Structure formats: structure tokens, C-alpha cells
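assembly run, all chains below
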Amino acid sequence: MHPLLLPGTLASLEVGKHLYWHLGNLKIHGQVFITSWVVIGILLVAALLGTRNPQRIPKGWQNFMEYVLEFLRQLVRGQLGEKEYRAWLPFVGTLFLFIFACNWSGILVPWKLIELPEGELAASTNDINTTAALALLTSLAYFYAGLSRKGLGYFSGYLYPTPIMLPFKIIEDFTKPLSLSFRLFGNILADELVVGVLVLLVPLFVPLPLMILGLFLSAIQALIFATLATTYIAEALEDHGHEEAHN
Amino acid sequence: MDSLTSAASVLAAALAVGLAAIGPGIGQGSAAGQAVEGIARQPEAEGKIRGTLLLSLAFMEALTIYGLVVALVLLFANPFAG
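ok done. output:
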């Protein structure tokens, strides 16, 4: 553990340095909690403002929030179909909004101006623990989807199309959360590192285009996470062969 | 961390991210080429093609990012640093 410290500059790239809080025997990364709470607060306020005084003809903020909901609904309905999507929209929508707000807060909110005794504030998705937790939640969700739909018969889907696929399907259950968490974590951390290094070289104006690219990429990453979560759930829900093919 | 371990770690980090960039580079190139071909053949489908292209480019990018994660682990959280 020896972070690359660049003293005397705006950007100290403190990878692997954390503000530890002690909770019993657990050591938790405080800076992740602070930024997540801020993001959760922003999302709550946005949702409350949008629904506090709903109008039949939406205006202003309510209109925007309805547009967001419409977008998420389209994302989920496209893969789960008209019959299923309602049950899973809240889960996938929450994932998308939380990841999206976390990613953008890392770029748009000037966290680095707030001094911490150790470590530094950044997007909370640039900590592997956050993304691993989100990915494991996705795993739980699709197992729940499969098991609640088909009972233990869900596991017979592992033998579909041929039993030879069984080991691969089991391995897939482990690689799904692994790749989900690494993809998000790596992309966000890489964005922040690139911007940090550029700020170190040229502090003014030059990093701006890359930050805009970062906004774009982190939005795409949130979309990918949500899309993949929906795909996995849809995969767990679908019937194999012997029943009637619907949709 | 002794000097041999750190030298090997730095070299391994460079190799990890460098080699991981080759495959996705080729893949992204061919995907973008095919997309341009598709748009040239059917310009009205540009919106759909662009969306799909961006999504699949991000998937390929993830492979390089795995290499980058390995490199970052080697540089910042090296498990072999005694």
C-alpha cells in the first residue's frame, strides 16, 4: 500500500488510501459513505420535488422526472416484456440512478476541495466494494427472479441446451458479478486517474474535454450496468423450450 | 518491497494493460468499420446503429479495463509486497 502522492498540486491520486472508520471489528471506507449519502440525498430530494405536488399536465421538474421514468421503463420493458417489467423496474431503476448520480457526482461536484484527514472524496463507484456490492445485489436479484418463478426447476435451466454446458453455466454465475463490478470500478477509476494526471500536467482548460468525455462514458457505464442487470433477470425468467414460447 | 519484486510488478503492470489493449483495439476497429458501412448503406438507421455501436464499444472497452485493474492492483495494492 503506497499511494502515488503528488504533493503541492490540485490532484493527489490517492489510490488505495482511505479514511477508515471503525465499526466494531470492521474497518469501513468512510469517504465512500460520505459521498454515497450525499448522492442518496440528492436523489431523494429530486424524487420528492418531482412527486410532491403532481399535476395532470406535468411541468418543470415533474416533467423531467417523468421523462427519466419513461426512459427507465423503456429500458426494462424492452427486455422483460410487457407482463414482467413492472416488478423489476424499481430495482433496475434504482441501480441505474444511483450509479449514474455517483459517476456524475465524481466529475461535477468539486469533492477535492473538501479536506479529509486521510484519503480523498471521489465518486463512490471508484471503490471496488461499492461496485461489488451492487453486482452481488444483481446476482441475488436474478437468482430470486429464477427461483420465485420456477422454484428449484430453475436449476434445470443449467442443463439446457445440453448438459455439457453445466460447468460453464456454473462458472458464469461467478463471472457475472465479477465482470459487472470490475467493469464499473475500472472505468470510473480510470476516468478519474486520467483526469488527475492531466490536471497534474496542465491544470487549466486542457483536462476539460476529457472530463466531458468522462461524463459521457460514465453515463454509458451506468446504462450498461442497468442493461446487463435486466438481461440477467430476463435470462433467469425465460422459459426453456418445452413450454409455449411467449412474447 | 524488495527491488526485484517492484521491478517485476511495474513491468507486469505495463504488460497487463498493454497486451489487454490489443484485442479490444482490433475489435473496436472492426465494429466501428462495420457500423460505418451499415450507416452508408442505410443512412436512416443511423440512430439505432449508433446506440448499439456505443454499447458494444463499451463492452469491448471493459476487457482493457480488466487489464487496467490488474495493473492498478500491481501498482497500488500489490499482494506480493511483503
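Chain B has one domain: 3-76.

Chain B has a mean pLDDT of 89.

not gonna interpret more than that til we talk
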